[in-house]
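Input.
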Amino acid sequence: MATIHTYDVAKGATGERDLATEALGTKVLYRTLKEAVVQYQANQRQGDAHTKVRTEIAGHRKKPWRQKKTGRARHGDRRSPLWRGGATVFGPRNKRAWGYQLPRKQRLVALRSALLGKVQDGEVKVLQGLSADKPSAKLARKVLADCAPQGTALVVLVEPDTNLWKSFRNFPQVRVKPAVEVNAYDLLAHKWLLAQEGALEVMEQRFDGIGGGHGTCQQDSQAEG
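Output.
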């Protein structure tokens, strides 16, 4: 059992909530987290660095001067790597695909372990009553000022919400994602996890079938202020 902070958006009041951590495992698996981060970064790698070899250089293949009796070094054509504007020797080629996929269960174990680390570090806050009828930067600014005054923040929603996404999208170092799309890298790349009420339960449902039991959030707090 762990204690996480709550924040009532309408009242601006803070409180606490008990979170059962049985579904999150018993310890943070750092090696699994590293593998998940490396996989995510590899999938983001474009690998578009490409240099041209002699056959890809535009231009003629005429010999610049005759082979002998000029007093100069012999050359075949101006596409040689020895010439300025010529080909590149052993340069990078965009023939390699850097992306790969870890097993689904391993990715979920990494996500579960990252969430456990956030809970242990006290960097998880539940936002009660977070909703918007229309995009509101004023609402987002108040939430960030009260819950994440410093550092990056990941706002996790129960389900995709265009109004909330538009409210937070222009703030630097803030990202908004639904709970079903969050991965371990998202949690590790942001200091604060601001979860809409019910989003943690949606994330816990994703851990079904990977072992470690099931957990539920139990609200047992009094709002302050």
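The radius of gyration is 27 Å.
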